[in-house]
Amino acid sequence: MRVLVALGVVVLLALLSLPKLWLATPDGFRPVVRVSLLDLAQAWSLDRAAQRLAAAGQHRDAQQRWQAAVGNNPANAQLIRNTLEHFLSRSTTGSQPAIEMVLHTGWLLRLTETNRADRTLAARIYDHFAIPDMVSAMIEPVVDNLSPLEDALYLKALFAEAQWSEFTTRWDRRQAQFAQDPELRLYHAAYLAGWGPPGSVTDSRQQLEDATADPQLRTTARRLRLILLAKTLEVEAYGTLLTQLVAEQADELMQHLAYWRLLTDAGQKAEAQQLARTCPRQPRTPLELFQLASAHLGLGLTEEALETLRRYARELAGPGVPWGTRTWQLYTDLLITQRRWDQLRAAAYDLRVWDRARDILAGYSLYMEGRAEFGLDHFGQAATLFDRAAARAYPDPEVALEVAANLHGLKYPRAAWKVLRPHAIHLRTALTACLLMVEIQLALAEDASLLLQFAQTAYDLAPEDPVAVNHYASALLINQQTPEEAARLTRALLEAQPPFPPAAVTHALALALSRRLQEAELFLDAIPPAAVTGVAKSFFHLAWLEIHARSGQPQLAWADLDQLAQQKLFPNQVRWLETQRAQLPPRRAEPSADS
Protein backbone atom coordinates (compact mmCIF):
# COMPACT_ATOMS: atom_id res chain seq x y z
CA MET A 1 0.00 0.00 0.00
CA ARG A 2 2.79 2.39 0.94
CA VAL A 3 4.48 1.64 -2.34
CA LEU A 4 1.31 2.56 -4.21
CA VAL A 5 0.97 5.80 -2.24
CA ALA A 6 4.61 6.70 -2.90
CA LEU A 7 4.16 5.90 -6.55
CA GLY A 8 1.05 8.06 -6.67
CA VAL A 9 2.93 10.95 -5.05
CA VAL A 10 5.74 10.62 -7.61
CA VAL A 11 3.25 10.60 -10.47
CA LEU A 12 1.43 13.61 -9.00
CA LEU A 13 4.67 15.55 -8.60
CA ALA A 14 5.64 14.69 -12.16
CA LEU A 15 2.29 15.87 -13.42
CA LEU A 16 2.66 19.14 -11.50
CA SER A 17 6.30 19.76 -12.42
CA LEU A 18 6.23 19.14 -16.16
CA PRO A 19 3.41 21.38 -17.50
CA LYS A 20 4.26 25.07 -17.96
CA LEU A 21 1.57 26.38 -15.64
CA TRP A 22 3.29 29.18 -13.77
CA LEU A 23 3.13 32.71 -15.21
CA ALA A 24 6.66 34.14 -15.10
CA THR A 25 6.19 37.52 -16.80
CA PRO A 26 4.49 40.60 -15.27
CA ASP A 27 0.78 41.20 -15.82
CA GLY A 28 0.08 42.60 -19.27
CA PHE A 29 3.53 41.67 -20.59
CA ARG A 30 3.72 40.28 -24.13
CA PRO A 31 4.70 37.67 -25.01
CA VAL A 32 3.49 35.72 -22.01
CA VAL A 33 6.12 33.35 -20.58
CA ARG A 34 5.00 30.35 -18.53
CA VAL A 35 7.37 27.94 -16.83
CA SER A 36 7.10 24.58 -15.12
CA LEU A 37 8.45 23.59 -11.73
CA LEU A 38 11.07 21.59 -13.56
CA ASP A 39 12.11 24.72 -15.50
CA LEU A 40 12.47 26.65 -12.25
CA ALA A 41 14.51 23.91 -10.61
CA GLN A 42 16.82 23.53 -13.58
CA ALA A 43 17.34 27.29 -13.87
CA TRP A 44 18.25 27.50 -10.17
CA SER A 45 20.65 24.57 -10.48
CA LEU A 46 22.31 25.97 -13.61
CA ASP A 47 22.71 29.39 -11.99
CA ARG A 48 24.45 27.84 -8.97
CA ALA A 49 26.70 25.78 -11.25
CA ALA A 50 27.60 28.86 -13.31
CA GLN A 51 28.59 30.79 -10.20
CA ARG A 52 30.87 27.94 -9.07
CA LEU A 53 32.47 27.65 -12.51
CA ALA A 54 33.06 31.39 -12.71
CA ALA A 55 34.70 31.39 -9.27
CA ALA A 56 36.96 28.57 -10.46
CA GLY A 57 37.99 30.52 -13.55
CA GLN A 58 36.10 28.30 -16.01
CA HIS A 59 34.43 31.25 -17.66
CA ARG A 60 33.31 29.78 -20.97
CA ASP A 61 31.56 26.90 -19.19
CA ALA A 62 30.06 29.36 -16.73
CA GLN A 63 28.70 31.46 -19.59
CA GLN A 64 27.12 28.39 -21.16
CA ARG A 65 25.42 27.47 -17.88
CA TRP A 66 23.99 30.95 -17.48
CA GLN A 67 22.75 30.91 -21.07
CA ALA A 68 21.02 27.60 -20.36
CA ALA A 69 19.55 28.96 -17.12
CA VAL A 70 18.02 31.91 -19.00
CA GLY A 71 16.63 29.44 -21.54
CA ASN A 72 14.82 27.60 -18.76
CA ASN A 73 13.41 30.74 -17.15
CA PRO A 74 13.70 33.70 -19.57
CA ALA A 75 11.53 35.93 -17.39
CA ASN A 76 13.98 35.87 -14.46
CA ALA A 77 15.69 39.26 -14.67
CA GLN A 78 18.43 38.31 -12.21
CA LEU A 79 19.55 35.38 -14.35
CA ILE A 80 19.86 37.74 -17.32
CA ARG A 81 21.84 40.23 -15.22
CA ASN A 82 24.22 37.48 -14.13
CA THR A 83 24.76 36.47 -17.75
CA LEU A 84 25.42 40.03 -18.93
CA GLU A 85 27.69 40.94 -16.03
CA HIS A 86 29.79 37.82 -16.53
CA PHE A 87 30.03 38.46 -20.27
CA LEU A 88 31.28 42.00 -19.67
CA SER A 89 33.80 40.84 -17.11
CA ARG A 90 35.29 38.24 -19.45
CA SER A 91 34.26 39.44 -22.94
CA THR A 92 33.41 36.03 -24.34
CA THR A 93 34.23 36.09 -28.03
CA GLY A 94 32.36 34.87 -31.08
CA SER A 95 29.34 36.08 -33.06
CA GLN A 96 26.77 33.96 -31.26
CA PRO A 97 27.54 35.29 -27.74
CA ALA A 98 27.47 38.79 -29.22
CA ILE A 99 23.93 38.63 -30.55
CA GLU A 100 22.74 36.66 -27.54
CA MET A 101 23.99 39.43 -25.26
CA VAL A 102 22.27 42.12 -27.33
CA LEU A 103 19.04 40.11 -27.34
CA HIS A 104 19.27 39.50 -23.59
CA THR A 105 19.77 43.23 -23.07
CA GLY A 106 16.66 44.20 -25.01
CA TRP A 107 14.63 41.53 -23.23
CA LEU A 108 15.86 42.66 -19.79
CA LEU A 109 14.86 46.25 -20.53
CA ARG A 110 11.38 45.11 -21.52
CA LEU A 111 11.04 43.08 -18.33
CA THR A 112 12.22 45.77 -15.93
CA GLU A 113 11.13 48.82 -17.94
CA THR A 114 12.89 51.91 -16.54
CA ASN A 115 15.07 50.28 -13.88
CA ARG A 116 18.10 52.59 -13.57
CA ALA A 117 20.65 49.87 -12.82
CA ASP A 118 19.47 47.77 -15.76
CA ARG A 119 19.65 50.74 -18.11
CA THR A 120 23.25 51.30 -17.03
CA LEU A 121 24.01 47.64 -17.58
CA ALA A 122 22.42 47.91 -21.03
CA ALA A 123 24.55 50.97 -21.80
CA ARG A 124 27.67 48.96 -20.94
CA ILE A 125 26.60 46.19 -23.33
CA TYR A 126 25.86 48.66 -26.12
CA ASP A 127 29.19 50.37 -25.52
CA HIS A 128 30.96 46.99 -25.75
CA PHE A 129 29.38 46.34 -29.14
CA ALA A 130 29.85 49.92 -30.40
CA ILE A 131 26.18 50.95 -30.62
CA PRO A 132 26.60 54.56 -29.44
CA ASP A 133 23.10 55.77 -30.24
CA MET A 134 21.70 53.20 -27.83
CA VAL A 135 24.24 54.14 -25.17
CA SER A 136 22.92 57.68 -25.42
CA ALA A 137 19.32 56.46 -25.36
CA MET A 138 19.96 54.61 -22.09
CA ILE A 139 21.73 57.51 -20.39
CA GLU A 140 20.08 60.70 -21.64
CA PRO A 141 16.91 60.34 -19.49
CA VAL A 142 19.12 60.90 -16.40
CA VAL A 143 21.88 62.92 -18.07
CA ASP A 144 21.94 65.57 -15.32
CA ASN A 145 22.57 63.03 -12.58
CA LEU A 146 25.11 60.51 -13.87
CA SER A 147 27.40 58.19 -11.98
CA PRO A 148 31.12 58.24 -12.95
CA LEU A 149 30.60 55.06 -14.99
CA GLU A 150 27.58 56.51 -16.84
CA ASP A 151 29.50 59.74 -17.42
CA ALA A 152 32.37 57.83 -19.04
CA LEU A 153 30.03 55.79 -21.25
CA TYR A 154 28.18 58.90 -22.34
CA LEU A 155 31.38 60.78 -23.19
CA LYS A 156 32.53 57.94 -25.45
CA ALA A 157 29.11 57.81 -27.12
CA LEU A 158 29.22 61.56 -27.78
CA PHE A 159 32.61 61.11 -29.46
CA ALA A 160 31.35 58.24 -31.61
CA GLU A 161 28.33 60.30 -32.69
CA ALA A 162 30.49 63.38 -33.44
CA GLN A 163 28.58 65.49 -30.92
CA TRP A 164 31.55 67.80 -30.43
CA SER A 165 29.84 70.68 -28.65
CA GLU A 166 28.33 68.43 -25.99
CA PHE A 167 31.57 66.41 -25.81
CA THR A 168 33.67 69.47 -24.97
CA THR A 169 31.05 70.84 -22.57
CA ARG A 170 30.96 67.62 -20.58
CA TRP A 171 34.76 67.26 -20.64
CA ASP A 172 35.24 70.78 -19.31
CA ARG A 173 32.61 70.19 -16.64
CA ARG A 174 34.10 66.86 -15.48
CA GLN A 175 37.75 67.29 -16.48
CA ALA A 176 39.14 66.43 -13.07
CA GLN A 177 37.12 63.20 -13.05
CA PHE A 178 37.73 62.20 -16.67
CA ALA A 179 41.46 62.95 -16.55
CA GLN A 180 41.87 60.09 -14.08
CA ASP A 181 40.84 57.59 -16.76
CA PRO A 182 43.66 56.84 -19.26
CA GLU A 183 41.20 55.69 -21.92
CA LEU A 184 39.08 58.85 -21.68
CA ARG A 185 42.26 60.95 -21.90
CA LEU A 186 42.91 59.26 -25.24
CA TYR A 187 39.42 60.15 -26.45
CA HIS A 188 40.05 63.76 -25.51
CA ALA A 189 43.43 63.69 -27.25
CA ALA A 190 41.76 62.31 -30.38
CA TYR A 191 39.20 65.12 -30.25
CA LEU A 192 41.93 67.75 -29.93
CA ALA A 193 43.93 66.15 -32.75
CA GLY A 194 40.99 66.20 -35.14
CA TRP A 195 38.66 68.96 -34.03
CA GLY A 196 40.47 71.02 -31.40
CA PRO A 197 42.39 74.32 -31.64
CA PRO A 198 45.25 74.27 -34.20
CA GLY A 199 47.91 74.51 -31.51
CA SER A 200 46.77 71.26 -29.86
CA VAL A 201 47.00 68.98 -32.92
CA THR A 202 50.67 67.97 -32.82
CA ASP A 203 50.87 67.17 -29.12
CA SER A 204 47.58 65.26 -29.22
CA ARG A 205 48.67 63.15 -32.19
CA GLN A 206 51.88 62.34 -30.38
CA GLN A 207 49.90 61.32 -27.28
CA LEU A 208 47.95 58.82 -29.39
CA GLU A 209 51.14 57.54 -30.99
CA ASP A 210 52.80 57.06 -27.58
CA ALA A 211 49.76 55.16 -26.31
CA THR A 212 50.27 52.45 -28.93
CA ALA A 213 53.27 51.28 -26.87
CA ASP A 214 51.02 50.61 -23.86
CA PRO A 215 49.48 47.10 -24.06
CA GLN A 216 46.42 48.29 -22.14
CA LEU A 217 45.76 51.23 -24.46
CA ARG A 218 47.22 50.08 -27.79
CA THR A 219 43.98 48.91 -29.38
CA THR A 220 41.98 51.96 -28.32
CA ALA A 221 44.73 54.30 -29.53
CA ARG A 222 44.88 52.62 -32.94
CA ARG A 223 41.12 52.68 -33.36
CA LEU A 224 41.05 56.39 -32.54
CA ARG A 225 43.89 56.99 -34.99
CA LEU A 226 41.81 55.29 -37.69
CA ILE A 227 39.02 57.79 -37.06
CA LEU A 228 41.48 60.66 -37.48
CA LEU A 229 42.96 59.19 -40.65
CA ALA A 230 39.46 58.86 -42.10
CA LYS A 231 38.78 62.51 -41.26
CA THR A 232 41.95 63.67 -43.01
CA LEU A 233 41.37 61.31 -45.96
CA GLU A 234 44.73 59.57 -45.54
CA VAL A 235 43.73 56.47 -47.46
CA GLU A 236 47.08 54.71 -47.61
CA ALA A 237 47.90 55.27 -43.95
CA TYR A 238 44.41 54.07 -42.99
CA GLY A 239 44.86 50.87 -44.98
CA THR A 240 48.27 50.20 -43.41
CA LEU A 241 46.99 50.63 -39.86
CA LEU A 242 43.88 48.55 -40.55
CA THR A 243 46.09 45.74 -41.88
CA GLN A 244 47.99 45.79 -38.58
CA LEU A 245 44.75 45.50 -36.61
CA VAL A 246 43.62 42.61 -38.83
CA ALA A 247 46.89 40.78 -38.19
CA GLU A 248 46.33 41.16 -34.44
CA GLN A 249 42.62 40.25 -34.78
CA ALA A 250 41.77 43.60 -33.20
CA ASP A 251 39.89 45.03 -36.19
CA GLU A 252 36.17 45.76 -36.27
CA LEU A 253 33.73 45.52 -39.14
CA MET A 254 32.90 49.24 -39.04
CA GLN A 255 36.57 50.07 -39.67
CA HIS A 256 36.47 48.06 -42.89
CA LEU A 257 33.32 49.85 -43.98
CA ALA A 258 34.98 53.22 -43.39
CA TYR A 259 37.97 52.10 -45.48
CA TRP A 260 35.70 51.15 -48.38
CA ARG A 261 34.16 54.63 -48.27
CA LEU A 262 37.61 56.23 -48.30
CA LEU A 263 38.68 54.16 -51.29
CA THR A 264 35.49 54.95 -53.17
CA ASP A 265 35.85 58.68 -52.53
CA ALA A 266 39.45 58.44 -53.73
CA GLY A 267 38.35 56.92 -57.04
CA GLN A 268 39.31 53.36 -56.11
CA LYS A 269 35.83 51.83 -56.12
CA ALA A 270 36.93 48.58 -57.78
CA GLU A 271 39.39 47.93 -54.95
CA ALA A 272 36.70 48.76 -52.39
CA GLN A 273 34.33 46.29 -54.07
CA GLN A 274 36.97 43.56 -53.99
CA LEU A 275 37.66 44.16 -50.29
CA ALA A 276 33.92 44.13 -49.57
CA ARG A 277 33.61 40.72 -51.23
CA THR A 278 36.48 39.28 -49.15
CA CYS A 279 35.99 41.08 -45.83
CA PRO A 280 37.39 38.97 -42.95
CA ARG A 281 34.84 40.25 -40.44
CA GLN A 282 31.24 39.08 -40.15
CA PRO A 283 28.49 41.18 -38.59
CA ARG A 284 27.91 40.51 -34.89
CA THR A 285 24.93 42.77 -34.17
CA PRO A 286 21.89 44.11 -36.04
CA LEU A 287 23.61 47.51 -36.40
CA GLU A 288 26.65 45.94 -38.02
CA LEU A 289 24.42 43.89 -40.32
CA PHE A 290 22.47 46.98 -41.34
CA GLN A 291 25.65 48.96 -41.97
CA LEU A 292 27.28 46.13 -43.93
CA ALA A 293 24.27 45.65 -46.23
CA SER A 294 24.04 49.43 -46.70
CA ALA A 295 27.74 49.55 -47.58
CA HIS A 296 27.25 46.80 -50.16
CA LEU A 297 24.43 48.80 -51.72
CA GLY A 298 26.56 51.94 -51.73
CA LEU A 299 29.20 50.04 -53.69
CA GLY A 300 26.65 48.74 -56.18
CA LEU A 301 26.89 45.19 -54.80
CA THR A 302 23.18 44.46 -54.71
CA GLU A 303 23.52 40.67 -54.80
CA GLU A 304 26.04 40.77 -51.96
CA ALA A 305 23.68 42.96 -49.91
CA LEU A 306 20.80 40.55 -50.47
CA GLU A 307 22.93 37.54 -49.59
CA THR A 308 24.24 39.24 -46.44
CA LEU A 309 20.70 40.01 -45.28
CA ARG A 310 19.40 36.56 -46.22
CA ARG A 311 22.23 34.88 -44.35
CA TYR A 312 22.29 36.94 -41.17
CA ALA A 313 18.88 38.60 -40.67
CA ARG A 314 17.33 35.49 -39.14
CA GLU A 315 20.30 35.10 -36.78
CA LEU A 316 21.02 38.70 -35.79
CA ALA A 317 18.12 41.02 -36.47
CA GLY A 318 15.88 40.09 -33.58
CA PRO A 319 12.98 42.51 -33.08
CA GLY A 320 13.11 44.51 -29.90
CA VAL A 321 16.89 44.99 -30.12
CA PRO A 322 18.64 48.06 -31.54
CA TRP A 323 18.51 48.17 -35.34
CA GLY A 324 16.87 44.74 -35.55
CA THR A 325 13.60 45.99 -36.98
CA ARG A 326 15.31 48.51 -39.26
CA THR A 327 17.36 45.69 -40.72
CA TRP A 328 14.21 43.74 -41.63
CA GLN A 329 12.79 46.90 -43.16
CA LEU A 330 15.92 47.33 -45.28
CA TYR A 331 15.71 43.70 -46.38
CA THR A 332 12.04 44.08 -47.31
CA ASP A 333 12.59 47.32 -49.25
CA LEU A 334 15.49 45.78 -51.16
CA LEU A 335 13.49 42.68 -52.09
CA ILE A 336 10.62 44.88 -53.27
CA THR A 337 12.95 47.10 -55.30
CA GLN A 338 14.50 44.03 -56.93
CA ARG A 339 11.07 42.42 -57.41
CA ARG A 340 12.19 39.24 -55.65
CA TRP A 341 8.66 38.22 -54.73
CA ASP A 342 9.38 34.57 -53.92
CA GLN A 343 12.26 35.56 -51.66
CA LEU A 344 10.06 38.16 -49.97
CA ARG A 345 7.42 35.52 -49.24
CA ALA A 346 10.10 33.19 -47.84
CA ALA A 347 11.51 35.98 -45.64
CA ALA A 348 8.00 36.79 -44.39
CA TYR A 349 7.43 33.18 -43.42
CA ASP A 350 10.81 32.97 -41.65
CA LEU A 351 9.98 36.08 -39.66
CA ARG A 352 6.49 34.91 -38.72
CA VAL A 353 7.52 31.51 -37.38
CA TRP A 354 10.44 32.96 -35.41
CA ASP A 355 9.58 32.89 -31.70
CA ARG A 356 11.49 36.10 -31.02
CA ALA A 357 9.53 37.98 -33.67
CA ARG A 358 6.06 36.54 -33.26
CA ASP A 359 4.62 39.18 -30.92
CA ILE A 360 6.50 42.16 -32.35
CA LEU A 361 6.74 41.70 -36.11
CA ALA A 362 3.98 39.22 -36.92
CA GLY A 363 1.92 42.00 -38.50
CA TYR A 364 4.93 43.21 -40.46
CA SER A 365 5.53 39.69 -41.78
CA LEU A 366 1.93 39.55 -43.04
CA TYR A 367 2.48 42.89 -44.76
CA MET A 368 5.66 41.47 -46.38
CA GLU A 369 3.75 38.46 -47.68
CA GLY A 370 0.91 40.65 -48.91
CA ARG A 371 3.39 42.90 -50.69
CA ALA A 372 4.84 39.87 -52.46
CA GLU A 373 1.36 38.78 -53.62
CA PHE A 374 0.62 42.32 -54.77
CA GLY A 375 3.85 42.32 -56.76
CA LEU A 376 2.72 39.08 -58.42
CA ASP A 377 -0.65 40.70 -59.31
CA HIS A 378 -2.49 38.39 -56.90
CA PHE A 379 -4.59 41.30 -55.68
CA GLY A 380 -7.27 39.27 -53.88
CA GLN A 381 -4.68 37.42 -51.80
CA ALA A 382 -2.82 40.66 -51.20
CA ALA A 383 -5.97 42.38 -49.89
CA THR A 384 -6.67 39.49 -47.51
CA LEU A 385 -3.11 39.54 -46.17
CA PHE A 386 -3.14 43.33 -45.79
CA ASP A 387 -6.37 43.07 -43.78
CA ARG A 388 -4.77 40.42 -41.55
CA ALA A 389 -1.67 42.59 -41.18
CA ALA A 390 -3.82 45.58 -40.19
CA ALA A 391 -5.54 43.53 -37.48
CA ARG A 392 -2.24 42.78 -35.69
CA ALA A 393 -0.52 44.93 -33.10
CA TYR A 394 2.55 47.01 -34.01
CA PRO A 395 4.47 47.73 -30.80
CA ASP A 396 6.99 49.87 -32.67
CA PRO A 397 5.40 53.15 -33.90
CA GLU A 398 8.05 53.56 -36.60
CA VAL A 399 7.16 50.18 -38.08
CA ALA A 400 3.48 51.07 -37.97
CA LEU A 401 4.23 54.34 -39.76
CA GLU A 402 6.18 52.61 -42.52
CA VAL A 403 3.56 49.90 -43.08
CA ALA A 404 0.75 52.44 -43.09
CA ALA A 405 2.57 54.65 -45.60
CA ASN A 406 3.15 51.70 -47.91
CA LEU A 407 -0.42 50.45 -47.64
CA HIS A 408 -1.73 53.94 -48.38
CA GLY A 409 0.60 54.17 -51.37
CA LEU A 410 -0.81 50.88 -52.66
CA LYS A 411 -4.38 52.28 -52.33
CA TYR A 412 -5.38 50.43 -49.16
CA PRO A 413 -6.18 53.43 -46.94
CA ARG A 414 -8.53 51.54 -44.60
CA ALA A 415 -5.88 48.98 -43.73
CA ALA A 416 -3.35 51.79 -43.42
CA TRP A 417 -5.54 53.62 -40.90
CA LYS A 418 -6.10 50.47 -38.82
CA VAL A 419 -2.33 50.07 -38.51
CA LEU A 420 -1.69 53.72 -37.68
CA ARG A 421 -4.69 54.54 -35.48
CA PRO A 422 -3.29 53.06 -32.20
CA HIS A 423 -0.21 55.27 -32.58
CA ALA A 424 -1.94 58.42 -33.80
CA ILE A 425 -1.60 60.33 -30.52
CA HIS A 426 2.07 59.45 -30.06
CA LEU A 427 2.97 60.34 -33.67
CA ARG A 428 1.28 63.75 -33.67
CA THR A 429 4.58 65.49 -33.00
CA ALA A 430 6.05 64.19 -36.28
CA LEU A 431 5.18 66.15 -39.43
CA THR A 432 5.55 63.16 -41.75
CA ALA A 433 3.14 61.12 -39.66
CA CYS A 434 0.59 63.95 -39.45
CA LEU A 435 0.65 64.51 -43.21
CA LEU A 436 0.19 60.79 -43.79
CA MET A 437 -2.80 60.73 -41.43
CA VAL A 438 -4.32 63.68 -43.31
CA GLU A 439 -3.87 61.91 -46.65
CA ILE A 440 -5.39 58.69 -45.29
CA GLN A 441 -8.42 60.61 -43.98
CA LEU A 442 -8.82 62.33 -47.33
CA ALA A 443 -8.78 58.94 -49.04
CA LEU A 444 -11.32 57.45 -46.60
CA ALA A 445 -13.58 60.54 -46.70
CA GLU A 446 -15.42 59.53 -43.53
CA ASP A 447 -14.58 61.83 -40.61
CA ALA A 448 -14.16 65.50 -41.50
CA SER A 449 -13.49 66.58 -37.93
CA LEU A 450 -10.67 64.05 -37.56
CA LEU A 451 -9.24 65.29 -40.86
CA LEU A 452 -9.24 68.86 -39.56
CA GLN A 453 -7.63 67.78 -36.31
CA PHE A 454 -4.65 66.16 -38.05
CA ALA A 455 -4.40 68.91 -40.68
CA GLN A 456 -4.29 71.65 -38.05
CA THR A 457 -1.63 69.73 -36.10
CA ALA A 458 0.51 69.42 -39.22
CA TYR A 459 0.05 73.13 -39.95
CA ASP A 460 1.00 74.06 -36.38
CA LEU A 461 4.13 71.91 -36.68
CA ALA A 462 5.21 73.41 -40.01
CA PRO A 463 3.32 76.61 -40.95
CA GLU A 464 5.80 77.21 -43.80
CA ASP A 465 5.42 73.75 -45.37
CA PRO A 466 3.28 74.15 -48.52
CA VAL A 467 1.77 70.65 -48.31
CA ALA A 468 0.77 71.18 -44.67
CA VAL A 469 -0.70 74.61 -45.46
CA ASN A 470 -2.70 73.34 -48.44
CA HIS A 471 -3.99 70.35 -46.45
CA TYR A 472 -5.10 72.67 -43.64
CA ALA A 473 -6.89 74.97 -46.07
CA SER A 474 -8.57 71.96 -47.68
CA ALA A 475 -9.67 70.62 -44.29
CA LEU A 476 -11.20 74.01 -43.42
CA LEU A 477 -13.22 73.95 -46.65
CA ILE A 478 -14.35 70.33 -46.20
CA ASN A 479 -15.54 71.25 -42.71
CA GLN A 480 -17.20 74.38 -44.16
CA GLN A 481 -15.19 76.64 -41.85
CA THR A 482 -13.65 80.06 -42.57
CA PRO A 483 -13.25 79.94 -46.36
CA GLU A 484 -11.72 83.44 -46.11
CA GLU A 485 -8.83 81.99 -44.05
CA ALA A 486 -8.42 79.17 -46.56
CA ALA A 487 -8.26 81.73 -49.36
CA ARG A 488 -5.59 83.73 -47.51
CA LEU A 489 -3.47 80.65 -46.89
CA THR A 490 -3.65 79.40 -50.46
CA ARG A 491 -3.08 82.86 -51.94
CA ALA A 492 0.24 82.95 -50.05
CA LEU A 493 1.17 79.56 -51.51
CA LEU A 494 0.47 80.74 -55.06
CA GLU A 495 2.45 83.97 -54.58
CA ALA A 496 5.43 82.21 -53.02
CA GLN A 497 8.70 81.68 -54.86
CA PRO A 498 8.47 79.09 -56.21
CA PRO A 499 4.65 78.91 -56.23
CA PHE A 500 2.79 75.78 -55.12
CA PRO A 501 0.49 74.86 -58.06
CA PRO A 502 -1.65 72.25 -56.20
CA ALA A 503 -3.05 75.14 -54.14
CA ALA A 504 -4.78 76.66 -57.17
CA VAL A 505 -7.89 74.44 -57.00
CA THR A 506 -8.12 74.81 -53.23
CA HIS A 507 -7.85 78.59 -53.63
CA ALA A 508 -10.57 78.62 -56.28
CA LEU A 509 -12.99 76.74 -54.02
CA ALA A 510 -12.14 79.02 -51.10
CA LEU A 511 -12.91 82.06 -53.28
CA ALA A 512 -16.18 80.54 -54.50
CA LEU A 513 -17.35 79.75 -50.96
CA SER A 514 -16.36 83.30 -49.95
CA ARG A 515 -18.75 84.60 -52.69
CA ARG A 516 -15.81 85.94 -54.75
CA LEU A 517 -17.22 84.24 -57.83
CA GLN A 518 -15.47 86.16 -60.60
CA GLU A 519 -12.02 85.63 -59.03
CA ALA A 520 -12.78 81.95 -58.56
CA GLU A 521 -13.85 81.60 -62.20
CA LEU A 522 -10.61 83.17 -63.42
CA PHE A 523 -8.59 80.61 -61.47
CA LEU A 524 -10.69 77.68 -62.65
CA ASP A 525 -10.51 78.74 -66.31
CA ALA A 526 -6.72 78.55 -66.08
CA ILE A 527 -6.79 74.94 -64.84
CA PRO A 528 -7.29 72.17 -67.43
CA PRO A 529 -9.91 69.75 -66.03
CA ALA A 530 -7.90 66.74 -67.24
CA ALA A 531 -4.97 67.83 -65.06
CA VAL A 532 -7.05 67.69 -61.88
CA THR A 533 -7.16 64.37 -59.99
CA GLY A 534 -7.97 62.99 -56.56
CA VAL A 535 -9.37 65.36 -53.93
CA ALA A 536 -8.58 68.31 -56.19
CA LYS A 537 -11.06 66.95 -58.76
CA SER A 538 -13.90 67.13 -56.22
CA PHE A 539 -12.82 70.65 -55.24
CA PHE A 540 -12.75 71.65 -58.93
CA HIS A 541 -16.35 70.60 -59.55
CA LEU A 542 -17.55 71.89 -56.17
CA ALA A 543 -16.14 75.32 -57.02
CA TRP A 544 -17.88 75.35 -60.41
CA LEU A 545 -21.12 74.21 -58.76
CA GLU A 546 -20.96 77.11 -56.31
CA ILE A 547 -20.25 79.56 -59.13
CA HIS A 548 -22.98 78.29 -61.45
CA ALA A 549 -25.59 77.93 -58.71
CA ARG A 550 -25.05 81.45 -57.37
CA SER A 551 -24.74 83.12 -60.78
CA GLY A 552 -28.10 81.83 -62.04
CA GLN A 553 -26.87 79.05 -64.32
CA PRO A 554 -28.84 76.05 -62.98
CA GLN A 555 -28.33 73.78 -65.97
CA LEU A 556 -24.56 74.13 -65.67
CA ALA A 557 -24.92 73.51 -61.92
CA TRP A 558 -26.77 70.27 -62.68
CA ALA A 559 -23.91 69.28 -64.98
CA ASP A 560 -21.45 70.00 -62.17
CA LEU A 561 -23.46 67.74 -59.87
CA ASP A 562 -23.22 64.98 -62.44
CA GLN A 563 -19.43 65.29 -62.42
CA LEU A 564 -19.13 64.82 -58.66
CA ALA A 565 -18.43 61.32 -57.35
CA GLN A 566 -20.29 61.36 -54.04
CA GLN A 567 -18.54 58.25 -52.73
CA LYS A 568 -15.35 60.32 -52.61
CA LEU A 569 -16.93 63.10 -50.56
CA PHE A 570 -17.23 63.40 -46.79
CA PRO A 571 -20.71 62.94 -45.28
CA ASN A 572 -21.10 66.65 -44.50
CA GLN A 573 -20.20 67.48 -48.12
CA VAL A 574 -22.83 65.04 -49.36
CA ARG A 575 -25.43 66.71 -47.13
CA TRP A 576 -24.39 70.11 -48.52
CA LEU A 577 -24.83 68.77 -52.05
CA GLU A 578 -28.32 67.56 -51.21
CA THR A 579 -29.16 71.07 -50.02
CA GLN A 580 -27.80 72.55 -53.25
CA ARG A 581 -29.76 70.03 -55.33
CA ALA A 582 -32.98 70.88 -53.49
CA GLN A 583 -32.51 74.60 -54.15
CA LEU A 584 -31.89 74.27 -57.89
CA PRO A 585 -34.75 74.62 -60.37
CA PRO A 586 -35.79 71.36 -62.01
CA ARG A 587 -33.36 69.99 -64.55
CA ARG A 588 -34.39 70.97 -68.08
CA ALA A 589 -34.95 67.95 -70.30
CA GLU A 590 -32.46 67.56 -73.13
CA PRO A 591 -34.06 67.96 -76.58
CA SER A 592 -34.61 64.64 -78.29
CA ALA A 593 -33.02 63.77 -81.61
CA ASP A 594 -36.47 63.73 -83.34
CA SER A 595 -37.18 67.29 -82.31
List the helices and strands and how they pair.
Layout: H1 2-17, E1 22-23, E2 34-35, H2 37-55, H3 59-72, H4 77-90, H5 95-112, H6 116-128, H7 132-139, H8 148-160, H9 164-173, H10 175-178, H11 182-195, H12 201-211, H13 218-231, H14 235-247, H15 253-265, H16 269-277, H17 286-298, H18 302-316, H19 324-337, H20 341-352, H21 358-375, H22 379-390, H23 397-409, H24 413-420, H25 431-444, H26 448-461, H27 466-478, H28 483-495, H29 503-513, H30 517-525, H31 535-550, H32 554-563, H33 571-583
Antiparallel strand pairs: 1-2
Which architecture name of the domain at 13-127 does CATH use? Alpha Horseshoe
Helix share of residues? Answer: over 70%
- CATH top level label of the domain at 13-127: Mainly Alpha
Instruction: Give the CA-CA distance, first to last residue.
Output: 113 Å
- The 3D shape can be described as elongated
**Order of adjacent strands in the largest pleated sheet:** 1-2
The protein's oligomeric status is: single chain
Characterize the structure shown.
- The structure is a single chain.
- The chain has 595 residues and is mainly alpha-helical.
- Among the domains are: 13-127, Serine Threonine Protein Phosphatase 5, Tetratricopeptide repeat (Alpha Horseshoe); 471-583, no CATH class.
- The chain has helices at 2-17, 37-55, 59-72, 77-90, 95-112, 116-128, 132-139, 148-160, 164-173, 175-178, 182-195, 201-211, 218-231, 235-247, 253-265, 269-277, 286-298, 302-316, 324-337, 341-352, 358-375, 379-390, 397-409, 413-420, 431-444, 448-461, 466-478, 483-495, 503-513, 517-525, 535-550, 554-563, 571-583; strands at 22-23, 34-35.
- It has a two-stranded antiparallel ribbon.
- Helix 4 packs parallel to helix 6 (116-128) and helix 29 runs parallel beside helix 31 (535-550).
- It is elongated, with a radius of gyration of 32 Å.
